[in-house]
Amino acid sequence: MFHPLPLYVGLRYVRARSTRFFVSFITWASLIGVCVGVAALIVILSVMNGFESELRDRLLSLSAPVRVTAAPAYAHVPVAAAGEAASPAAQPDWAHIVQLARATPGVTDAAEYAEVQALAVHGPEMVPVLLRGIEPADPATVAELAHTIAQGHLADLTAGAERAIVGEVIAERLGLSPGDSLTLLVPTVSADGTPAPKLRDMHVAGVFEVGLQDHDATLIFVNLADVRALGPAGTVSEGLRVRVQDVLAAPQVAARLRAQLPPTLEVSDWTRDNANYFRAIRIEKTMMSLILLLIVAVAAFNIVAMLVMVVTDKRTDIAIMRTFGAAPTRVMGIFITQGLVIGWLGVALGAALGLLLALHVDSIVPFLEHTFRFHIMDADVYYITAIPSEVHWRNVSAIALAALLLTALATIYPAVRAARTAPAEALRYE
Asked: In which domain, by residue range, is 46 found?
């Protein structure tokens, strides 16, 4: 059977047992280094992808993928005096806007909401909170909060019932439990410009926990009508919370809404509202990838050292092949083949090991915690107690390609050095 000379000889060099222990040791060290580096990259990036998805799910558990609010330039336009026509900028027709939003492609539902800043007071303690008014009977609201707040607690938020659902951290700080009384202080300003705070007593209908400080320590849910009654126009922020079919397509849905709504309304999506969180994750993933890629780079340098020593050891073989008419490019191909087989075998083994670990993190981590009796994510410190993992095949492909490229580059210098071997000089003392 016909075999190309570079491939045939290169594979024989890979299979042959070297008489020099150090050369064999560096060969195995290079292969293991590439394998460990690729596996570590796949596992770490998969775990970070899992944490990113977990964070996104928790953020969206109480945050709408798309929100429609009054633009800042129009948010505090005063309501027209008695007898005058109301300004459309000051009083948007939210019912009409809900219909427009529901008719937009990619939108599943929309619901009105209102928010106002307040102080929650219970006994000697007080904490700043954000009152969010919702319509508990609205299907969009029920669907959005179904996984966070019990349906029975939502049903208690009827207009005029003076009931509220508070975050877990707020309840802990104020010592609240269902059935307790809670005083809300809403800062307002009277007609003459003097501060005139409003006090409103509420009963705690329930406690929710999302697992994010931004929600559990700041949010209190009450009925939409109760929030609107707490302050005059301009002090209560109103808008729409829009649910979409695909949360990852929320920016595109927001762009469609922005195109058909008037400029007095502002449309934002969760990627803009939480940009700092995900920018930090992207930076961490990039830096972690670069650091772990150094493991593969060190293994590639080992391949260079191994091939240089092999070239030195095979000077006589090279000289004989050149004497029989082998071109320098064929000699280069021999050592490129040897280096690529070692490097790419390491990449293949690393990818297989990394995928095996990344796809079974949920069973490997509990086994290690049970065996060595320690907790990686202590429940007393972290909201997320399990290590999530999400394999993105795009990341796996990029890691494998980068490792293959590094190992291929590592073979160039030794191959060029082998091609430049002078036959007469190599055979002089043989």
From this structure: 5-57+278-427
